[in-house]
Q: What sequence folds into this?
């Protein structure tokens, strides 16, 4: 397996974790406007997002543009799975269908 492929998957995991951190922060009440934006969850979330973007840029050199873009939707699946365990969100038929279509699309692209 290509090292850039694994790096791209790791970048998607970091981006998904950052989304969860930002969602968790959005669900909290803060005493001031400044604390709402300058807290560990928000700053950490944005740092992870920047790191994941840098990883994606590195991966463009090793995988090519289309291969990295095809892996991007995996972030949706990772966020749904993390939301299930962190926020207790349920999977419904629409979410399962969407995840299945994403995985099927990736498989079809790479089998070509």
A:
């Amino acid at each position: 397996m290509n090292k850039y492929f694994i790096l791209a998957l790791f970048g998607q995991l970091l981006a998904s974790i950052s989304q969860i951190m930002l969602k968790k922060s959005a669900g909290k009440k803060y005493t001031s406007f400044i604390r709402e934006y300058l807290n560990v969850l928000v700053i950490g979330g944005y740092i992870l997002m920047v790191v994941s973007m840098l990883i994606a840029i590195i991966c463009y050199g090793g995988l090519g543009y289309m291969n990295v873009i095809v892996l991007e939707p995996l972030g949706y699946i990772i966020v749904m799975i993390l939301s299930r365990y962190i926020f207790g969100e349920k999977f419904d038929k629409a979410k399962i269908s969407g995840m299945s279509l994403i995985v099927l699309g990736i498989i079809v692209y790479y089998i070509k």
About this structure: The chain has six helices and no strands.
